[in-house]
Amino acid sequence: MEQRCPIRLDTTGSRIHAEADGLRAQGPATRVELPGGVLAWSLNSYATIKKVLTDPRVTKSARNHWPAFINGEIPPDWEMISWIAMDNMVTSYGRDHVRLRRLVGKAFTPRRTELIRPRVVELTGELLDRMAARAPGEVVDLRAEFAYPLPARLVADLIGMSEEARVETAKAIDMMVDTTVSPQQAQQILQDWRAAMTELIAEKRRNPGEDITSDLIAARDVDGTRLTEAELTDTIFAILGAGSETTINFFDNAITALLTHPEQLQLVRTGAANWDDVIDETLRVESPLAHLPLRYAVEDIDLDGVTIPAGDPILVNYAAVGRDPALHADAPGEFDVTRADKEHLSFGHGPHYCLGAGVARLVATVGLSSLFDRFPEMALAVDPDELTPLPTFIMNGHRSLPVRLSAPVPSLS
């Protein structure tokens, strides 16, 4: 097969969908260059990604299956070091993955998810009340005022983190997904979030509460073989990061889509579509997670004539899945809440399917419905083309979301 030079991924995130289309056209797996000159295989088609996500020959553990990392060829200040240095259920393999997932999964059962609903409603109301105090017609950054704090504060509550600590840790999370950071910044990011998690764990050991961190500490301290200190630290961070960052960008994308397609919003208001339709269509056409670092081939893997050698890293592009013409032949890049087939893989697939998917759907439904009920006439304050993408090929969202608020409908609470 023809050998092509690796394609350097756009670290600024300015052309996520166009880049995915180009990579998909090159074949089932395409060599790309990551920051620091690290090479990986990028997957951009639905069929290939769904197959790989359930392939037992593919792992997420760099410490077990990435020779370059094991042999010290990946420096400790690599720009994406936080994504591979973690030791938790996201990066574990085999029995360790099953063990860690079982422990964390107890916090995200359907029953416990429903118990979270009152807090979601309360947080949503607080944020909307704050915006309602603004003068009608005032421009606000809806990402900063609503899309960001709602999921971020909820997940901080779930792990028992104070608001002050959350604000500080958020800086490290935001920098971690930024693929334009320097090596020095990358090393500092890793140190900062681990220090924040260590401090949280120490506080919860002194003052345990009804939260996920306290539950995981108890599981470890009862039987030290079940959860190492590194696993405890990195698992709590994974919950904080995954539970907030993706949902923040989901809100950003969903609100943008509805404000730029008012006829679609009207379908929801008339009952011709519902919020589940909005959620799944947003996840299909604008997955909040684009490329997710990293997976590795345990052995040589053949993908329709392209061989990924054992030990090579793999980059899955979730933002490319729902726009694959082979999956959605009818205008795959068009936002249409009435689309019968909204297939996507934005919550993952297989062993690493998102444990918090139920919580994310709950927050999305309550947040979107309440926002558009309270401000039915709000509108984008800039042309959609003026919205600036986040500087990353990992996440898919905007730096800000300027919206002109309408006169609020009085709260019923």
From TrEMBL:
Pathway in which this enzyme or protein is active: Antibiotic biosynthesis; mycinamicin biosynthesis
- Under which name does UniProt file this protein? Cytochrome P450
Q: Which UniProt keywords apply?
A: Antibiotic biosynthesis, Heme, Iron, Metal-binding, Monooxygenase, NADP, Oxidoreductase
Cite the GO molecular-function annotations of the record. heme binding; iron ion binding; monooxygenase activity; oxidoreductase activity, acting on paired donors, with incorporation or reduction of molecular oxygen
Say if the entry is tagged with keyword DNA repair.
no
- A biological-process GO annotation: antibiotic biosynthetic process
Q: Which organism is it from?
A: Micromonospora echinofusca
UniProt-listed InterPro entries: Cyt_P450, Cyt_P450_B, Cyt_P450_CS, Cyt_P450_sf
Keyword Oxidoreductase belongs to the record: yes
Family the UniProt entry places it in:
Belongs to the cytochrome P450 family.
